[in-house]
Amino acid sequence: MKKLLQSLFVLMFVAITAIAQERTITGTVTSKQDGLPLPGVSVKIKGTTKGTITLSSGKFSIAAAGSSAVSLEFSYLGYITQTIAIGSSNSINVALVEDTKSLTDVVVVGYGTQSKRNVTSARVGVTSEEIKDQPVPSVAQALQGRMAGVQISSGSGRPGAPIAINIRGRSSITAGNNPLYVVDGVILPSNSGSTPSTAGAGISALANINPEDILSVDVLKDAASAAIYGSRGSNGVVIITTKGGNKSGKSTINVSAYTGAQSLTKTRDLLNASEYRQMYNEARINAGLATLFTQAQIDNPTANVNWLDEIISDNSRTNNLQLSIASGAGEKTQFYTSLNYFDQDGALNFGGFKRYALRTNVTHDINSFIKVGSNLAISRSYRQESPVDNSIYSPFPRALVARPDQPIYNADGTFAANDYNNPLHMFQSVNYVNLSNIFNSTFAEVKILPGLKFRSAVGIDYTYVDQRTYNPITSLSGQGSNGSGSSGYVQTENYLTTQTLSYNKNLFDNRLNIDGTAVYEFQWNNQSNNRVDGSNFPSDLTPYVTSAAQITGGTASLTYFKIESMLARLNMAWEGKYLLGGSIRRDGSSKIPAKGRYGYFPSVSGGWIISEEDFLKNNNTISFLKLRSSYGSTGNQEGIGNFTSRRLIGGGFNYNDTPGFALSTIGSPDLKWETTNQFDLGLELGLFNNRIDISADYFNKKTKDLLLNRPIPSTTGFNTILENIGSLEGHGFDFQISSKNFVGAFKWNTSLNLSTYNNKVTSLYNDQPIDGSFATRTAVGQPLGAFFLIKSLGVDRNTGDMLYEDINGTNTITGDDRQFLGNPLPKFYGGITNNFSYKGFDLSVFFQYSYGNDIYNLGAEGTGGWASLGGVVSATAPATNVIRDVYENRWTPSNMDSKYPRAVGGVRGTYNTQRSSRFLEDGSYLRLKNITLGYNLPKSVLTKLHLSNVRLYATGYNVLTFTKYTGFDPEVSSDFTVGNTGVDQGSIPQFKTYTFGINIGL
Length: 1002
Known about the structure:
Layout: H1 2-21, E1 23-31, E2 42-45, E3 51-53, E4 59-64, E5 71-75, E6 82-85, E7 91-96, E8 106-109, E9 112-115, E10 123-127, H2 139-142, E11 150-154, E12 163-167, E13 180-183, E14 186-187, E15 214-220, H3 223-226, E16 237-242, E17 252-264, H4 273-286, H5 295-299, H6 307-311, E18 316-328, E19 333-345, E20 352-365, E21 370-385, H7 395-401, H8 423-426, E22 430-449, E23 452-471, E24 484-507, E25 512-535, E26 550-574, E27 578-589, E28 598-609, E29 622-636, E30 648-651, E31 661-665, E32 674-687, E33 692-704, E34 707-711, E35 720-724, E36 727-743, E37 746-755, E38 758-763, E39 770-771, E40 776-778, E41 786-790, E42 792-795, E43 802-804, E44 818-822, E45 828-838, E46 841-851, E47 854-857, H9 860-863, H10 884-888, H11 906-912, E48 920-922, E49 925-936, H12 939-945, E50 949-963, E51 983-984, E52 991-1001
Parallel strand pairs: 1-7, 13-16, 47-51
Antiparallel strand pairs: 1-4, 2-3, 2-5, 5-6, 8-9, 10-15, 11-12, 13-14, 15-16, 17-18, 17-52, 18-19, 19-20, 20-21, 21-22, 22-23, 23-24, 24-25, 25-26, 26-27, 27-28, 28-29, 29-32, 30-31, 32-33, 33-36, 34-35, 36-37, 36-38, 37-45, 39-40, 40-41, 41-44, 42-43, 45-46, 46-49, 47-48, 49-50, 50-52
C-alpha cells in the first residue's frame, strides 16, 4: 500500500510539472505588403498535429509545451510559409510575405475570384496601370493589341464609333460575334447601343464607361471559363471591374487632365483641276469621244478645289479632366467617387463626341459577417456626325472623287453643285445622337459559416438614346423635299438579380482546397422606341419635326426578353499542385420556343502544377510550370429576335384604306441557340524566379446550329425562315511572354503577345454559299467572308487595258469567273510593349501589328478606276478624280510597263474597273500605337508642395504606321458583319493624337 501511494505521488508530481511547463502563445499575423491583418492563417506547432487559425483581426492563441525548442509554422494561401522558433517568449507577431513564385494573384472569373495559380482555364487581363494615359473615349480602344487571343478593331475613326472585339476569332455568321460584357457583376445588354434611326452608326456598349474609372479588365477566352455564362458565352466574356476605396483607410484625392491635338493618320494626294481636265480629255479620246476641254480651259479652270483639304479640320482637339476621391473612412467603409469630362473633336470639319460621367462606389462592413455595397454611375454623352458613315456615298469618300474643277459656292453664296456631290454641302445634313445612362449594382454579403458566404445582388442598366436628324432645305438630301428630318428615342431597361452561395474550405490538414459556387440569376430586358419623320419645313431656323408641314412616316414599338439561369461550379486543388474544375449552367430564354427553352452548358478543366513536384521543386531555372486543359460548351442567342420563334400578327396592313391585321412573323417553332464546343490545352511557365513569364494555348472550337435564313415558297407570304442549319470550326494559338530585363535602378520590362486563328465553314443550307454586299462569299470549305473575285493578271502592255483570268474558258469575263482569292482574317496579330524607368522618368512604347490579312479597297474603284461610281465617262457621267499615283503611273504609249491601266471611259473603262483582285491589297501593318514619356516629381519636392504625387507626361497615339496598304487606314473595316469584314468603303481613318497631361495626388 505504501509503494502504491508513493507511485501515485510520483505520477501526480510529473503531471503537475508537465502542466506547469505548458504555456499559451499569442500573437498577430499581418501582411508585410500593406500591414493589414490576415484572417484564416494556419498556425501549427511544427512536428505535431496541433494547430489553430487566426481570427478576422489576425490574432491567434495556441497552447504549447514549456520547452524553448518550440517552433510555429505559419501558412496561408498566396503567402510564403514561415517557420519561427519561439524561444522563451509567449508572444510573437508575424508578417507574411506574398508568394510571387507561386503566382497566387487573385484574378476575376465569372461570379467570383480565384487564385491565378489555381486557374485551369484560359483567361487574360490588364490593369488600369497598363492602359492609362491614352487619349481615347472607350476602354476597348485602350485594349487594342494588349491581350493574346483578343482582336479589337474600329469600324471608323469617328469619335464614339462602335468597337468590335473578337475573342479567338468568329463563331457565327449572322448571330453576332461581339463578346458578353459584364460590368461590376451586371451583364450589359447587347441592344443598349440601338438608335431610333438608321442614320449614322450605332453606339459602342462601352462608350458610356469612363476608362479612368476602370480597375481591371479580365477576358474569359475558353469554354471552361465562359461556360459559366451559358447561352451567351460563345464569343467570350469581358469582365470589367471599376475602382473602389482604399482598404488602408487613407484618403486620396487625384486630379488628372490632358489636352492634345489630332490629325488623320494619312492623307491622299489628288489631282488638281488642270490635271483632272487633262486626264478627262485623255479618257474621252481613248473611249473614242471628242475632248471636252480646250487647252485654255485646262490651263485656266474655273475652280481649283482640294476637297479633302476643305473637309479636314486643322484644329481638331481632345480634352479630358478627371477628379477622383478614394477613401477608407475607417476600417469598415471604403468609397470611390469620380467626376469626368471628355471632349473629342472629329477629324473633319464636322462632328465630335462629348461625355460627362459621375461614379460613386461604396462598400461597408456592418459587422464582422455582413457586408453591403453599391456602385452607381451616371453619364451623358453627345455625338454629332454625318447621317451617312462607312459608305462610299458619305462625305469623306466623296471628297476623294469630287471634281476639283467645280467650285464650293455659287456667286450668290449658295452651295454649288458637283457631279459627285459637294462634300461641304453634304455636311449641312446633321445627325445628333445623345445617350444617357444610369448604372447601379448593389449587393449584400453574409458570412454564414467560416468559408461559407451568401451574396445577393441587384443590377440596373438604364439607357436612353435620343436622336434628331435634319436635312436643311438647301442641302443635297433635303432640297427635293424642302427639308426633311426625324426625331426619336430608344429606351432600354436592363434588370438583373443574382443570388450567389459560395464555399471555400481547406480540408485534410490543408492538403485539399475546395471552392464551390452556386448561383440563381434572372434577367429582364425591356426596350421601347419611337420615331417620327417629317418633310416640307418652313425654314432651317426651325429644324424640328414639329415644324414639318408633312409627317411622312413613323414607328413605335415595345419589346422584351427574359432569361432565367441556374449554375454551379466546383474547383478543387490537392496539395497545391493537382487541380480539377467543373461547371454547369442551365439557361431558359423567352426567345426560344417552349419545347426547347432550357439548355445546359457544361465544362470541365484540369491542371497540374509540375513545379511543385519533388523533381522540379527549388529548380534554379524553372520557377513555375503548369499544364492545363479544358473542354466545354457555350451558346449564342444574339441572332434571335425577341419574338422570332413565334407566329405574330400586326396592324397597319390596310386594304382600300380599311385598317386590318395580317401575319407579320411566320415563326420558327424549332429555333434554338447556336452552340460552340471548345477544347483548350495550355502551358504556363515562369523562368529565373519568374523574371520571364510565358503562357501558350492551343484551342479548337466547333460551332453547330448556326442561325441562317432558309428560303421558303413565297406563297407563304414570306421569302425566308430563320433556322439552325449550319456549322463551322476554327483553331489557333495564343502566346504571351513578359520579361523583366533589368530590375535595378534602371528598369526595363517587355511584354509580347501573338495570336493565330483559322476557320472554315463546314456546312450551310444545301451547301449554298452566302454572298456579302461587295466582294466576299461565305462557302463550305472556305473561311468566313473570304474574298470572291475575278483574278486580275495585270495590265496588257499592248492595249493598256486590264487582263483577267478566264477560268471557265468562255473568252468573256463575267461573274462566273470569280474565285476565292483572299482572307480578311490575319495569319497572326498582336502587340509588343516595352516599359523603361529610371529614377523619376518612365517611358512606354507600344506597337500593334497584324500580318497576312487582305483588304478590299472599295474606294479605289473610284479614285483609281478612271470611271465614275455610277457609270462611264460621257457627257452626262463625268470622270471621278483620282489619286496622283494612279495618274502618274498609268499606261501610255510611252509607259507600256505600267502599274495601272490607261485612262479610258466607256465600255473599256467599266471593264478595267470591275470588281477584281486589282483592288485587293495586303492589309498587314505595324503601328506605333502608343508612346508615353513621363516624369514623377521627387519626394523632396512633393513634401514641400504637400502633395503625394505629381506626374507630367506626353503621349503620342497612332504615331507611325508601316503598311503596304494604299488606303487610309489598315485597321478600319466597313462594318462588323461577316460579309463585309475587310471591305474599306472609305471610312474615316483613326486619329493621330499628341497629348500633354498631368496627374496630381493630394
